[in-house]
């Protein structure tokens, strides 16, 4: 009795019911073709098989048998073995790509996923219910860019810790990224400089509330930072997100990078930041911009070109204000720098901007001019009680002091005038612009052309003054 049992699906039972009436002559082949959605020729052949083989002919002949298009068992065994050995934590999509590229084993993604599920090597991730409504993408490319940094064990312990700093366009998901030692102002400036070099200035910058972008004082008032100053000079709006979900596009980018990029770095055996950047620029970013970029709803490009007043290297730099001393020197980072001639009106006692650029160079800007300078080396004194700059005026020779000891008061006064003239010739030359004394722009240069002071009426110390006494 069990041999006469035939397992059928509901669809096959419906076909058998219609075709049984055709075989008995109670229904025409044309009517059966219309009810089953088949041609009359198919109905004629099926009726012939029913008369010859019975009801079992409506069941597919390959039921319970392997498919004629199945992959060879040797290919399956090789793919599963390679997955266990090299790609144990890869997903089916990435593993299928690497099997073709590295091992020349071509397997469809769905087929490989089925094998891995059957072997218990991979499990589907549970998709949670969406409880947030996503913000619509901006219409134009360059209208809004999201930026963030991901500090992760990118090299899996093979090298130093790194941070991946990147930008992603909100309208198209186009990416620019680079590895840096840590999340710093210089890192964001470098990535922004790369983006502007490729596409231009975006309209708005969307990031988290990190202190790099905007700081706050004790009264919670916003304080501009080096990066926010650079955005303002480039006319790029700054928008700070209140939650990670608000900038979900760049957060999803990190999820993809922490899965695929880590494994790309592992296959390339990267151990340094330079090697990681090479893999990032030659493999991951081109792949992402080729496979994951979408078409913007508007064909217009919102990027703007740099203007003539936009010196990108100067804008994206650390800028510090310093006051010029009377000897035309400034102090920066525990070093003394001598500003070279010519001296501009208002320079002495004025304020200059010291730019520490991304390439490590230093530039000193006074108003709209860049000033030449040189570093002043400090020499340690023999007594050990301080230092002496190499540009300081040398003391009067001892023989000159001994010769002036026996002179009268009038002779000492005359010798003092000569000594002052001699000392003036040894001082660093300062170019005074015409009509100015070099002190401030408001103080005119004397019409007589002499030095500052009133000439013969200038005050001099008395002969008995300690300054006039010999050592």
Class from secondary-structure proportions: alpha+beta
Can you count the helices?
A: 13
Low-confidence parts: 381-388, 391-409, 424-455
Radius of gyration: 41 Å
Report how far apart the termini are.
Answer: 134 Å
Helix content: 25-40%
Task: Walk across the major sheet and give the strand order.
Answer: 3-2-1-4-7
Number of strands: 16
- Range of strand content: 15-25%
Bulk shape? elongated
Mean pLDDT value = 82
Give the SSE string: HHHHHHEEEHEEEHEHHHEEEEEEEEEHH
Question: What attributes does this structure have?
Answer:
471 residues, alpha+beta, five-stranded mixed sheet, four-stranded antiparallel sheet, 13 helices, 16 strands, 35% helix, elongated
Describe this structure in words.
This protein is α+β, with helices and mostly antiparallel strands. The chain contains 13 helices and 16 strands. The strands form five sheets. Strands 3-2-1-4-7 form a five-stranded mixed sheet, with helices on both faces. A four-stranded antiparallel sheet has the order 8-11-12-13, with no helix packed on it. Strands 9-10-14 form a three-stranded antiparallel sheet, with no helix packed on it. The longest helix is centred in the middle third of the chain and has 20 residues. It is elongated and about 145 Å long. 20% of the residues are buried. About 13% of the residues have low confidence.
Task: Tell me briefly what this model is.
With 471 residues, the chain is an alpha+beta fold. The chain has helices at 10-24, 29-36, 40-53, 73-86, 92-103, 109-119, 185-198, 226-233, 248-267, 273-291, 312-315, 398-405, 409-426; strands at 145-152, 162-169, 175-180, 204-207, 215-216, 222-223, 237-240, 318-323, 329-332, 335-339, 351-356, 362-366, 369-371, 373-376, 378-380, 387-389.
């Amino acid at each position: 009795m069990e041999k006469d049992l035939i397992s059928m699906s509901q669809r096959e039972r419906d076909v058998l019911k219609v075709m049984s009436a055709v075989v008995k002559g109670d229904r025409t082949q044309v009517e059966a073709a219309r009810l089953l959605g088949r041609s009359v020729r198919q109905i004629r052949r099926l009726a012939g098989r029913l008369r010859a083989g019975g009801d079992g002919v409506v069941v597919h002949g390959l039921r319970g048998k392997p498919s004629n298009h199945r992959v060879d068992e040797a290919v399956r065994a090789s793919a599963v073995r390679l997955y266990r050995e090299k790609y144990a934590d890869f997903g089916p999509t990435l593993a299928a790509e690497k099997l073709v590229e590295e091992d020349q084993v071509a397997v469809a993604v769905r087929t490989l996923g089925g094998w891995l599920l059957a072997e218990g090597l991979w499990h589907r991730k549970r998709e949670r219910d969406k409880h947030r409504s996503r913000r619509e993408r901006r219409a134009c490319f360059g209208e809004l860019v999201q930026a963030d940094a991901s500090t992760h064990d990118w090299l899996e312990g093979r090298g130093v810790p790194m941070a991946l700093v990147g930008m992603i366009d909100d309208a198209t998901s186009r990416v620019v990224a680079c590895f840096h030692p840590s999340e710093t102002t210089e890192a964001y400036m470098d990535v922004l400089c790369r983006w502007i070099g490729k596409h231009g200035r975006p309209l708005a910058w969307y990031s988290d509330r990190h202190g790099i972008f905007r700081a706050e004082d004790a009264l919670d008032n916003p304080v501009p930072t080096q990066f926010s100053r650079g955005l303002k000079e480039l006319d790029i709006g700054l928008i700070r997100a209140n939650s990670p979900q608000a900038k979900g596009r760049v957060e999803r980018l990190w999820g993809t990078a922490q899965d695929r990029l880590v494994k790309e770095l592992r296959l390339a055996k990267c151990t340094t930041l330079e090697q990681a950047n090479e893999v990032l620029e030659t493999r991951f970013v081109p792949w992402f911009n080729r496979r994951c970029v979408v078409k913007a709803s508007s064909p217009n490009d919102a990027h703007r070109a740099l203007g003539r007043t936009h010196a990108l290297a100067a804008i994206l730099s650390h800028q510090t204000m310093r006051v010029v001393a009377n000897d035309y020197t400034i102090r920066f980072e525990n070093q003394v720098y001598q500003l070279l001639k010519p001296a501009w009106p208002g320079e002495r006692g004025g304020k200059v901007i010291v730019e520490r650029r991304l390439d490590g160079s230093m530039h000193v800007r006074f108003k709209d001019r860049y000033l030449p300078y040189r570093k002043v080396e400090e020499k340690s004194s023999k007594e050990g009680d301080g230092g002496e700059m190499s540009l300081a005026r040398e003391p009067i020779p001892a023989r000159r002091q001994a010769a002036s000891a026996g002179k009268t008061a009038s002779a000492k006064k005359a010798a003092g005038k000569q000594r002052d003239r001699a000392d003036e010739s040894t001082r660093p030359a300062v170019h005074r612009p015409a009509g100015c004394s070099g002190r401030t722009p408001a103080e005119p240069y004397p019409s007589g052309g002499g030095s500052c002071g009133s000439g013969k009426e200038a005050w001099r110390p008395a002969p008995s003054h300690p300054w006039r006494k010999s050592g």
